[in-house]
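Changelog note: in this version the structure field was regenerated for every chain. One regenerated record is shown below for reference.
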Amino acid sequence: MPHHGNEAEHSEGNEQRKPVIRDNRKVDPETGAARHPEGEAGAEGNASAEGNAATEGDALSQAEEILNGVEVPAEESVAPGAAAEAQAAELRNDLLRLQAEYVNYRKRVERDRAVAGEMAVIGVLNSLLPVLDDIDAARQHGDLEDGPFAAIATKLENALKTYGLERIAETGVEFDPTIHEALIQQQGQDVEVDTVSQVLRTGYRSGERVLRAAQVIVAVPA
């Protein structure tokens, strides 16, 4: 049978006559996923894109309007510098406070150390007071007038003086209840105030601290 026209037209005609099969199932039989027609998907995609573009455009325009409408004061333009200065001042104050606390702590430690050392010395001196009483008794009896024991007693008393030990044994002075303990009172002649006439037991003090009051006889005005 003879053909009319060229082969391209004949092939195009055959393609137009081929049946077109469309799968309108809404569920893919292989994956089980829902299908959306191309038209709907395209429409939804276009609508979504247009909505996003519109939303983004509105947000950008609003942000631009807000930024253009805000007036920044000149003080706020130097806010970072002021904040840095405030932080530096706060750190400097903290450093000064820590330094003051350290100085106070060091003074307190030194004071406590000095008090502890003083109390240790006082403890040693108090423990040696009976020994000094024995030395005084031996000297009064004439046992320490000469010899090696007299030299040892003198060295001990001089060594204790270097630690601030002082004797309270003066007579003829006004009676002082802070350093004297009156055991006997006698009327005295030519005395206008209570006066120490005799020391029965020597007292001792270290600086302003009285280790032991002197036991004395007091002469009172007649």
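Spot check on this record: Helices lie at 7-17, 38-69, 74-77, 79-140, 148-161. Residues 1-6, 8-14, 38-47, 70-78 have pLDDT under 50 and may be disordered.
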